[in-house]
């Protein structure tokens, strides 16, 4: 099991605009760019990017997938992991500071709160992209990320992921009874490692 930390110097503007519901090709609406830049500076100062991950074997038992840390009957994940004998299981977060900035603006400025929500989502996704690129460099060909709640993979599998990776102790992310994460800009995912051909 490994724990990573990092930081970004900027947040992808196109992704931010997409999360805001704007056309990324058109750029930010007039008067919005400066506000986004101000929110971006605050989030970059507040970021605390962390990730924990480990490798698990994948075994198939009829219609059931044994992921090494849990079993699931998800047909979608089974199809997704065809040709994979191992997975990288990971959890990543942008950190509690990002949530604090969003909460502060929720009471001060709904528009800035929305911008911070979009920037926070783009921030954690870019962090996951960087971590995923590292997996590719280290382990070779792999699948895209697959998370709980996608297709028929139940959100309750989060509990097994948190136990397997000791997520709360290692990177400070907690899981509610209904399987939602705090800080909110956090991700868990499965990446299939392709078998050698």
Walk me through this protein's architecture.
With 197 residues, the chain is α+β, with helices and mostly antiparallel strands. It has one domain (2-194): 3-Layer(aba) Sandwich (NADH Oxidase). Helices cover 43% and strands 23% of the residues. The protein has seven helices and nine strands. The strands form three sheets. The protein has a four-stranded antiparallel β-sheet with strand order 1-2-6-9, with helices on both faces. It has a three-stranded antiparallel β-sheet with strand order 3-4-5. Helix 2 runs antiparallel to helix 4 and helix 2 packs across helix 5 (110-139). It starts with a strand and ends with a strand. The model has no long low-confidence stretch (mean pLDDT 93).
Which structural traits does this protein have?
single chain; 197 residues; 7 helices; elongated
**Count of individual domains:** 1
Q: What is the CATH class name? A: Alpha Beta
Topology, number of strands: 9
C-alpha Rg (nearest Å): 18 Å
Helix-strand pattern:
EHHEEEEHEHHHHEEE
What helical percentage do the residues reach? 40-55%
CATH topology: NADH Oxidase
Strand order of the biggest β-sheet: 1-2-6-9
Low-confidence stretches: none
> Strand fraction band?
15-25%
Structural class: alpha+beta
How do the helices and strands line up, and which of them pair or pack?
Elements: E1 2-6, H1 13-19, H2 33-46, E2 49-57, E3 59-61, E4 64-66, E5 71-72, H3 75-80, E6 84-93, H4 96-108, H5 110-139, H6 157-165, H7 167-171, E7 174-175, E8 181-182, E9 186-194
Antiparallel strand pairs: 1-2, 2-6, 3-4, 4-5, 6-9, 7-8
């Amino acid at each position: 099991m490994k724990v990573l930390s990092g930081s970004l110097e900027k947040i992808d503007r196109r992704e931010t605009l997409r999360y805001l519901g704007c056309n990324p090709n058109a750029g930010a609406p007039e008067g919005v760019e400066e506000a986004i830049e101000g929110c971006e500076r605050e989030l970059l100062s507040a970021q605390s990017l962390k990730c924990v991950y480990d490798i698990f074997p994948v075994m198939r038992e009829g219609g059931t997938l044994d992921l090494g840390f849990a079993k699931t009957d998800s047909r979608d994940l089974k199809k997704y992991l065809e040709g994979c004998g191992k997975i990288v299981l990971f959890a990543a977060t942008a950190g509690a500071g990002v949530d604090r900035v969003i909460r502060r603006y929720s009471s001060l400025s709904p528009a800035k709160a929305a911008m911070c929500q979009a920037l926070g989502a783009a921030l954690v996704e870019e962090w996951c992209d960087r971590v995923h690129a590292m997996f590719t460099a280290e382990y070779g060909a792999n699948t895209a990320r697959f998370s709980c709640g996608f297709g028929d993979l139940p959100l309750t599998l989060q509990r097994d992921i948190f136990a397997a990776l000791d997520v709360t102790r290692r990177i400070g992310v907690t899981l509610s009874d209904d399987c939602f994460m705090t800080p909110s800009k956090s991700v868990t995912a499965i990446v299939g490692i392709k078998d050698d051909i």
